[in-house]
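Researcher: Please predict.
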Amino acid sequence: MPAVHTVLVVGSGLAGTATAIHLADGGVAVELAELEPAVTTLGSGITLQGNALRELRALGVWESVREKGYSFDSLGLRAPDREGTLLAEIPDARTGGPDLPAALGMPRPDLARILHERAAAAGAKIRFGRTVTALDQDAGGVGVTFSDGTTGRYDLVVGADGIRSSIRGLLGIEAATRATGMGIWRAFGPRPASVTRTDLFYGGPSYIAGYCPTGEDSLYAYVVEDAQDRSGLSREERLATLRELASAYHGPWDDIRATLTDPSRVNYTWFETHLLPAPWHRGRVVLIGDAAHSCPPTLAQGGAQALEDAAVLTELLLAADTLGDGVWTAFTDRRCARAAAVVEASVQLGQWLLDHVQGDVPGLMGRIAALVAQPA
């Protein structure tokens, strides 16, 4: 018998939906509460490294993901010169194993729909348009009050509600995010034939200019600059700013820039990070994914770490007879140090750029690849 019979998962991002799928497959009654009114249709793209693909395969959605996404096995480094000269093509580590691609890009909305459909098919009850406003737990369970006034009681509550987690706040845990000093422009658009993998341009007027194919006909492109207050710009001004920054980069960027015409498909955010000290649970409430740890996208590991949290947590819950110290000790041992290493490495890569220091980037990336190549 699993350690829990009824579970509330708050937040239906990668960590939350993966948790709901695993638990529902294991016979647990799962409710998935999501503040948004429906599966989001917004967003650009996401890069999923091999260890994320390994977890998606375990969730039973790999074939659907492969069909919607764009796989590749190398990373290109290009110069910020007039030709966008290719400096190196580096085989990427297959951290999910030799039978999976090194990386895959796909539209975020497609990934969200695939996971939500899988969760519903597994038997999870997805409740849109509500979240949790109060928690009242005792030794036997957690009483929950929802934003629509309804209540419920569960053996366990999983807070997977993102970087600004309301569950974290209800637990009284202070874990304010920290801006790292970088801001990123992202645009989603058509994929030119010249884009067949992620290429990174270092230098020029920005720290990084890159792109990732997300399907046969789509990609997302990005430019990383010093973090600035860009909130006063109109949508048209945001597009113009991105196009101006991107004008310093050539090669495939010339093809991409010609397609950047829709202001509604451009967004700007700051890189942020936080890491919740162990343990990530308080009684019968546990935080996972961005609610517990977040990192800038310099290693493209955010989604993978969220999926790993869900996999390890649910494995332990389904294998144990009771929800006790053994479960939490094992979860802490398997997840906290590993996630911390990824967060710290992701921040370090950006800090070297901010400080204009040539750090040991290959060594750092190699260490993290070796770490995440081992199942969590």
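Model: The chain has a mean pLDDT of 96.
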